[in-house]
Design a protein that fits this description.
Number of helices: 14
CATH architecture of one domain: 3-Layer(aba) Sandwich
CATH class of one domain: Alpha Beta
Bound molecules: nicotinamide-adenine-dinucleotide
Strand content: 15-25%
Largest sheet: 7 strands, mixed
Strand order of the largest sheet: 9-8-7-6-10-11-12
CATH superfamily of one domain: NAD(P)-binding Rossmann-like Domain
Shape: globular
Order of helices and strands: HHEEEHEHEHHEHEEHEHEEHEHHHH
Helix content: 40-55%
Number of strands: 12
Distance between the termini: 38 Å
Radius of gyration: 20 Å
């Protein structure tokens, strides 16, 4: 039995979704081969010194999946479960995500296999600087532009940007996005992914005849994506019945006070001890009573085992890859609508794109302008996805992949294959 990667590859899930769309697009075999291979995978060691003086070595990754539409773009994840397979899958998804919302970027992703909950701030800084230093030659505003992902924050982006700037002897804010405002971040970036989740969800709810004031929402994961999605759903009048994080899930039929939950996390760093709902397990949360379910933690949480028990009418994938292809088939058979990750969580990379543009201009926009542009980008493209869904009588996921693959293929074809 292999222990190097999870039993079923995450990248394998991505390829399964890709193939469904490629079949409908009648993509030729050569183009399929090109698009199912990453352009570049980089693996390196990160030796670092603990505060105690001892040395340890972690493994770092950066995968630059595709450059056809522009520089690679995608977050950096710090998590004990990070593998080359996972980073490749996430870089693959970034390629389609950037294309589905029509951004001039390719796809990339990075990660370090580590447990940040055991690291001090100084240790985190040393790891980040070494990670950035290893990548100096291959990242940059016109090459590859990282951003935050699970367990990486605006502060981590600030260290990355500073290390890159020191090595290249220039101030270079455009090398990463998701930075603090003071050093070239964009207004609205912190909330952008959660905001995008709610924009997509509310648009689909209107199609389905679900009024926000009568809708109940359950959200798995209360980090950057889940927390702001919860806040914005509540602001729009929805009842957020369930939230969760790595410490467990909290359910309140009458609605959780999201501002209190956010204050709790602000004070205690997680939801442990939160009194605003009954404590249940994360497994129970996913199959609890609700209209809208938002998985916003990690991949492969909606599977063949629990898909038949999910009660939601609409699933909005805040996380990347939360639904296995088997579960997706069950949802489609049961008439449960799924807004796929590459569309539902594209709000983050869209405002990252705005940040990159603002850094290059040296001119920064008001938050209202950022939010208005974000809504325009997401709605324009989700409407196009829905048009393709109807035309081909398929799912939103396959339609989103079709739109994205078609855009990448057009760019590749125009540029030509340098063979
Ligand atoms: P984060 O680190 O800010 O938050 C992750 C949350 O998930 C935390 O609350 C954590 O406790 C929780 N969690 C972890 N394991 C869990 C488990 N087993 N059960 C329940 N909760 C668990 O990360 P994030 O940036 O919010 O990212 C969440 C997901 O959204 C990831 O799949 C990420 O790739 C995706 N995403 C993030 C962004 C972004 O801009 N941050 C953009 C697009 C997609």
């Amino acid at each position: 039995m292999t222990t190097a990667v999870r039993e079923v590859s995450v990248f394998g899930d991505g390829i399964a979704y890709f193939n469904e769309a490629a079949d409908l697009l009648q993509l030729d075999a050569g183009m399929r081969q090109i698009l199912t291979h990453p352009s570049r995978q980089i693996i390196f060691s990160i030796p670092f010194q603990r505060d105690t003086g001892e040395f340890e070595v972690f493994t770092g990754y950066r995968v630059q999946y595709n450059f056809a539409r522009g520089p690679a773009k995608g977050g950096i994840r710090y998590h004990p479960g990070v593998t080359l397979d996972e980073v490749t899958a996430l870089a693959f998804w970034m390629t389609w995500k950037c294309a589905v919302v029509d951004l001039p970027f390719g796809g990339g992703k990075g990660g370090v296999t580590c447990d940040p909950s055991t690291l001090s701030n100084n240790e985190l800084e040393r790891i980040t600087r070494r990670y950035a230093a290893e990548l100096v030659e291959v990242v940059g505003p016109d090459k590859d532009v990282p951003a935050p992902d699970v367990n990486t924050t605006p502060q981590v982006m600030a260290w990355f940007m500073d290390t890159y700037s020191m090595h290249t002897r220039q101030n270079c804010p455009g090398v990463v996005t998701g930075k603090p405002l003071e050093i070239g971040g964009s207004r609205g970036r912190v909330e952008a992914t959660g905001r995008g989740v709610t924009i997509c969800a509310l648009d689909e709810m209107a199609q389905m005849g679900i009024a926000p004031e009568s809708a109940s929402v359950v959200i798995q994961g209360f980090g950057n994506v889940g927390m702001y999605a919860a806040k914005l759903f509540a602001e729009r009048g929805c009842t957020v019945r369930g939230i969760s994080d790595v410490t467990g899930a909290y359910y309140n039929k009458d609605g959780i006070n999201i501002v209190e939950a956010m204050e709790h996390v602000g004070k205690h760093h997680n939801l442990a001890g939160f009194q605003g709902g009954d404590k249940i397990s994360n497994a129970e949360l996913l199959v609890s009573e609700c209209d809208v379910l938002v998985p916003a933690a990690l991949e492969k949480v909606l599977t063949a085992e629990n898909a038949s028990k999910v009660k939601a009418k609409l699933i909005v994938e805040g996380a990347n890859g939360p639904t296995t292809p088997e579960a997706a088939k069950t949802f489609s058979d049961r008439g449960i609508v799924v807004i796929p990750d590459i569309m539902a969580n594209a709000g983050g990379v869209t405002v990252s794109y705005f940040e990159w543009v603002q850094d290059r201009m040296g001119y920064f926009w008001k938050e209202a302008e950022v939010n208005e542009r974000l809504e325009d980008v997401l709605l324009t493209n989700i409407h196009e996805v829905r048009r393709i869904k109807v035309q081909y009588n398929t799912t939103l996921r396959t339609a989103a992949y079709m739109l994205a693959i078609d855009r990448v293929v057009k760019a590749l074809t125009l540029r030509g294959i340098y063979a």
